[in-house]
Amino acid sequence: IKKVGVLTSGGDAPGMNAAIRAVVRSCAYHNLECVGIFRGYQGLIEGDFKDLDARSVKNIINRGGTFLKSARSKEFMTAEGRQKAYDHLKKEKIDALIAIGGDGTFKGAIVFNEEHNFPIIGIPGTIDNDINGTDYTIGYDTALNTVIEAIDKIRDTANSHNRLFLVEVMGRDAGDIALNAGIGAGAEEILIPEQNLGQDRLIESLRRSKLSGKTSSIIVVSEGDQIGKNIFGLAKYIEENLEGYEVRVSVLGHIQRGGSPSCYDRVLASRMGVAAIDALLANERDVMIGIVHSKMVSVSFSEAIKGENKLDMELIRVADITSV
Ligand code: F6P
């Protein structure tokens, strides 16, 4: 291995820049050439490359987003697109790729590998934390902190007006952001796709807490939750079936993806970037770097995309007890 390409793909996540920086500097440390590929797999197809050295990645560890930019490439889903990507890699004499992204990125890597037998190491970067084989993904911790900061502010209004707020958070089909931020922000109820609470049990529970003296409530709703999917309909249903509360909906949206990465995400990204180059040099192929019990591990791409629910169900109990 002499020359390594690095790209970010799929939804951006805070800490991706720190991961790129670690990959680039790790290459410099090991005397490998490094090439940045812009706009993920789409830039690979178009040959949108730029040589990167240790100084090219100065002053980015603290920045959100990804300076290499990102995309969800439709063309890479076609065999022709992947062939173009392979041709560019060969032309540029790139021997291996580091792909930073989520499950779509790793699915793309699997197919590309099958067709072209090209070495790729993955780094999990997504706020959703929905990747198997790693306790944490880059960007998740920052997103959690963004969410609790936003809910703390919403709480001021909820409390001043005796209101019930439904706060929708991201996470795609995973409830990690909702459950953890919900506990951290002291939510009354947390609706996640991994557990179907049901509208009537929700109303029952809200009624009980009102009787116990609560005057306002925050309900955190994961975007993937079944009853939360129609969050405005849910708000109406609650208003019609529970007396005494005004209900408001707040959809946090893309503010959850932006902002300066937390220290945890910067350190995680730095460790994963270094581990990715180490794995490449140790001849590992087709793997994603993960963190399990605070240690770096390698997980096969097929394991990483399994989509298994890795939510710690003990947290549901914690949420239930701490919201009585
Ligand atoms: O995967 C990150 C994520 O922000 C999800 O939480 C969300 O469902 C999705 O991306 C939104 O994607 P887009 O920015 O393409 O609308």
From TrEMBL:
Residues 3-280 form the Phosphofructokinase domain. Mg(2+) binds at D103. InterPro entries: ATP_PFK (IPR022953), ATP_PFK_prok-type (IPR012003), PFKA_ATP_prok (IPR012828), Phosphofructokinase_CS (IPR015912), Phosphofructokinase_dom (IPR000023), PKF_sf (IPR035966). Allosterically activated by ADP and other diphosphonucleosides, and allosterically inhibited by phosphoenolpyruvate. Pathway: Carbohydrate degradation; glycolysis; D-glyceraldehyde 3-phosphate and glycerone phosphate from D-glucose: step 3/4. It is found in: Cytoplasm. One of its GO terms (molecular function) is 6-phosphofructokinase activity. GO terms for cellular component: 6-phosphofructokinase complex. It is an enzyme of class 2 (transferase). Catalyzes the phosphorylation of D-fructose 6-phosphate to fructose 1,6-bisphosphate by ATP, the first committing step of glycolysis. Homotetramer. This is ATP-dependent 6-phosphofructokinase. The lineage of its organism: Bacteria, Pseudomonadati, Bacteroidota, Flavobacteriia, Flavobacteriales. The gene is pfkA.
